[in-house]
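Dear U.,

For the methods section draft, I wanted the exact inputs and outputs in one place so we can describe them consistently. I've listed the two proteins in the order they'll appear in the manuscript figures. Please don't edit the token lines directly; just add comments below if something needs changing.

First protein:
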Amino acid sequence: MKRLLFLGYLVLSFPVMAGKLDEAKARAHLEAIAKGDLEAVMQDYPENPFFEWVGGPHDGQYRSKKAIREMWADFFKDNLRPVKTGELETYSSPQGVSIEAQVEYVGKRKVNVWHIFVYRDGVLTAEIWQNEVGGEAKR
């Protein structure tokens, strides 16, 4: 009986534990972006990633590591760095974890971004940036 209770605890708590691990990965990803560290940013993506950028000069869908690398290299040229990051919010289920954050970037221009990171089995499989240049990112 104790074994069944313990196994039940593990099954029910896994999404919570996975959420915390994925949240740490999302923070590390945002920190790599903040530093303009292209290699650190790229190591987070699997072989077939998906990145959706909504609004601004990078608007579009990126469906390969090569395309995402080129987009990030261009983004880093603008020297945008985060000046304000909101609290990360985590939504988890046994199938995966979605994490959202609002970040204000300033460099050659000001960009407010609503980020969504999707992790499956601890891997960043999808990323969405909804941005509003010069304004507030709103949900």
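Second protein (the one for the lower panel):
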Amino acid sequence: MKKAFFVFAIFISMMCIMQSRADAGQFGELLIELETSVFYSAQSAEWRSRRDAWIADVRAAGDNVAALKRLLVEFETHLKYSAQTPAWRNRRARWLQNVNRANTIHGLAQQLIVCETAISYSAQAAAWRSRRPGWLSRARAL
């Protein structure tokens, strides 16, 4: 009986670890999907030369929350203020604090959603409007 319980506990632990890694991978893909929705004209001039390496960095980050935080902030930093809602300038400092406090993929996903809501539709491809509800559902589920 003890052996069966021990095996069951190991199985549950492994499932939790696998889910955490899956969530991290999904977070990275959601971050990349958001980035691809934004027009180049809404991003800094330096972003084009950094973008490919940034995408590779996001994919390589795996479940490293610290790396994903840095990459989320880097993406947001390269957005022009003109591509964001007017209130974002006042909300950004608080958002940065919340990103820095996040210590799980779920917590970071909440800040990804906040970042997305600060991006003006005019800075994004028209197709984003139809993809957004599914994107939001997947982000909220992390």
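Candidate sentences for the figure legend, describing the second protein: The two ends are 34 Å apart (CA to CA). The chain has a mean pLDDT of 88.

Thanks,
Y.
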